[in-house]
Structure formats: structure tokens, C-alpha cells
Write a structure and sequence with these properties.
Blueprint: H1 2-57, H2 62-72, E1 82-87, E2 95-100, H3 106-177, H4 183-204
Antiparallel strand pairs: 1-2
Length: 205
């Protein structure tokens, strides 16, 4: 009885852990789906950024460039912009057009120039972390499968051992139930048989 209770307890624990593992697997799959969605979003953002850069590169007029800058830096308003033309040489009637902005606005360009490099490095590091996470997840899956296999093997082994124990116990009990002739009973039986033989011979004689 005690063995049966222990066996049922082990089986219950294994079943509970398997249910917990199944629940965690579903939760992990949900999180992995979220990760894939965010990764796809990052890829889409990179593509939109490349398309926006190409749009700016294709601008052909100063007015269009001014409109693009006003949209990018609305904090300057409309009055902070200006356009001038500087000749290449003093005698030239033609020159190169320049956009006039407040002097300290140049720091914005300096900061924005450094940001892409930093963001690119951060992106590369995040992609590396994501790749390592995928490798770690694969290892965790392998470990989980091994743990599940070990639990199943332990449960099967315990079940086989329990079945063998039950069979051995039943055979042992069956042997105990067989009639046993004690020594005194055997001596009395032999004595009675011997006396019967003697009496039989006497009668025949």
C-alpha cells in the first residue's frame, strides 16, 4: 500500500511538472511572437528611413529644401530661414546659393550628425543580443527536452519497478498460502502409517 501511494505521488508530480512545462511553452511562444513582431517593425522603420533619405536626396530646388527643413525643425518657425547667393569670385555674376540659419543652430546639425552613428552601433548591439537570445532559447529547448525525457524515463522505470515488485509480492504471498506440513505432524503421520503397515501384516499372518 505504501509503495502504491509513493508511486501515485511520483506520477502526480511528474504530471504537474509536464502541465507547467506546457503552460510555460505557450507563454514562451507568445513572447517569441512579440519579439518577431518588434523585429519586423524595426526592419520596416529602417526601410522607411532609407526611403525618406532618398526623397531628400532627390530634391532639386532650394524652396523644396527649405520646406523640408521647416518640417524637420518646426521650432525655428518661418522667420529664422534665409537664402543668399555668394559668387565664386568677386567678378562673377553667378554664385552658389546658401541657406541662412541662426549660428547656434549649427550645434543641432553637429548633434544630429553624431546620433546616427550611435544609433547604428546600438542597433548592431541589439541585433547581436537578439541573435544570442535565439541561441540561448535553442539551448533551453534542448535542456527542456532532456529534462522531459529524463522525467518520462524515470516514470517508466519506476512503473516497471513497481510492477515487478507487485508481481514478486504476489508470488511471495501465494507461496505463503500453500499448506505446510510441520515436523511434529509429519512424524505423527509417518508413525500412523508405520503402525498401519504392522497391523496389516499381523492380520495377514
Amino acid at each position: 500500500m505504501r509503495k502504491a501511494v509513493l508511486r501515485d505521488s511520483v506520477v502526480a508530480v511528474v504530471d504537474a511538472r509536464q502541465r507547467q512545462q506546457a503552460a510555460l511553452t505557450i507563454q514562451r511562444q507568445t513572447l517569441e511572437a512579440d519579439i518577431r513582431r518588434h523585429r519586423d517593425s524595426v526592419i520596416a522603420l529602417a526601410r522607411r528611413r532609407a526611403a525618406a533619405q532618398l526623397t531628400v536626396r532627390r530634391l532639386r530646388t532650394v524652396g523644396a529644401l527649405q520646406d523640408q527643413l521647416r518640417a524637420a525643425f518646426p521650432e525655428l518657425g518661418d522667420g529664422a530661414w534665409g537664402v543668399t547667393t555668394l559668387p565664386f569670385e568677386d567678378a562673377d555674376t553667378l554664385g552658389l546659393e546658401y541657406l541662412l540659419v541662426p549660428a547656434w543652430f549649427a550645434e543641432t546639425f553637429a548633434i544630429d550628425r553624431g546620433n546616427p552613428e550611435s544609433w547604428r552601433a546600438q542597433k548592431d548591439q541589439l541585433l547581436a543580443v537578439d541573435s544570442l537570445r535565439l541561441v540561448i532559447t535553442a539551448f533551453q529547448d534542448s535542456v527542456t527536452r532532456l529534462v522531459a525525457a529524463n522525467a518520462a524515463a524515470y516514470q517508466a522505470g519506476y512503473q516497471a519497478a513497481y510492477t515487478g515488485y507487485q508481481d514478486l509480492s504476489q508470488r511471495f504471498v501465494a507461496k505463503l498460502k500453500k499448506p505446510r506440513i510441520r515436523l511434529r505432524s509429519a512424524v505423527a503421520l509417518l508413525g500412523t502409517a508405520g503402525a498401519g503397515l504392522v497391523i496389516g501384516r499381523t492380520i495377514r499372518e
